[in-house]
From TrEMBL:
Protein name stated in the entry: Phytanoyl-CoA dioxygenase
Species name: OM182 bacterium MED-G24
Pfam families associated with the record: PhyH
Regions that span the bilayer: none
InterPro entries membership: Phytyl_CoA_dOase-like
GO molecular function terms noted in the UniProt entry: 2-oxoglutarate-dependent dioxygenase activity; iron ion binding
Cofactor needs: Fe(2+)
Length: 270
């Protein structure tokens, strides 16, 4: 069965800079994935302490690797980026129940260092991401406009690494909320302006966030790693990572720690 996007879906993405919702996982699968993720959190000392380790779980766990290579996610991405695709990183945006954490208006292209901007994010809900949970909100068409200057606020409740915020006046009245049911995903372009509000629900809002790029994309900030998930890599711009042999194995832990530290450096480097 093909999971490629239709011509109409591709047009919508190209026009708006995002596409939502798309079904991915069944309820059984999503329950199992949430359990695997929450087991990981417990294994590493609980929710707070596991935060520093949760990036790139596909380098540490088979289930993580299976997710980032899942045809139901990767094929729609190839419809947008072409047949040769890398996973650059796997992140988590989690808002605990009844929580003031938020994400300010920003553009990912401003600080990732990836160029050209043939880069897309698959944002996958592992819990309900309905209107009360602070789902993703996008400004349609903003990926076709300018790259805005962002100010680093380091605000306590801002989930972004530096609290980066676009301070210019934006057409916020156009902002489009994309609530998702558990198991659904949205796709967004690396230049699309987006934000999200606080979680006013009684459950965690768990976003599993996968960043994909075409193989011709370069990291302009230094040497970086990525995982080939579709087609072939004829460019060699990234050191390619492999599926972990042993779940949480010693070698895997070292490889993972190294990749995560390096990615942190890339994101924080100006
Ligand atoms: O999940 C969120 O609230 C924000 C995620 C985000 O900014 C992103 O995926 O680029």
């Amino acid at each position: 069965m093909s999971h490629q996007l239709s011509a109409e879906q591709i047009d919508t993405y190209q026009r708006d800079g995002f596409l939502s919702p798309l079904p991915v996982f069944t309820q059984d699968e999503v329950r199992q994935l949430r359990k695997q993720f929450e087991d990981f959190e417990q294994r590493f000392g609980g929710v707070e302490r596991a935060v520093s380790r949760r990036t790139d779980l596909h380098l540490l766990t088979g289930w993580g690797y299976d997710v980032v290579t899942d045809a139901r996610i990767v094929e729609p991405v190839t419809s947008l980026l072409g047949p040769d695709v890398l996973l650059w990183s796997m992140n988590w945006f989690i808002k605990e129940p009844d929580n003031t954490k938020f994400v300010s208006f920003h553009q990912d292209a401003n600080y990732w260092g990836l160029e050209p901007h043939d880069v897309a994010t698959a944002w996958i809900a592992l819990s309900d991401a309905g209107a009360r949970t602070g789902p993703m909100e996008f400004i349609p068409g903003s990926h076709r406009g300018e790259l805005y200057e962002q100010h680093n606020t380091f605000e306590k409740d801002n989930l972004l690494s530096r609290g980066q915020t676009i301070e210019a006046a934006l057409p916020t009245e156009d902002c489009f909320m994309t609530p998702l049911a558990a198991g659904e995903m949205s796709l967004h372009h690396v230049r699309t302006i987006h934000r999200s509000g606080p979680n006013k629900s009684s459950d965690r809002r768990i976003g599993m966030v996968l960043r994909y790029c075409a193989t011709h994309v370069r990291q302009t900030k230094g040497a970086d790693t990525a995982t080939l998930v579709a087609g072939e890599d004829q460019f060699g711009h990234f050191r390619l990572m492999q599926r972990p042999n042993v779940e949480y194995g010693e070698d895997e832990m070292a490889i993972h720690a190294d990749a995560v530290a390096n990615q942190g450096k890339m994101i924080m480097r100006d």
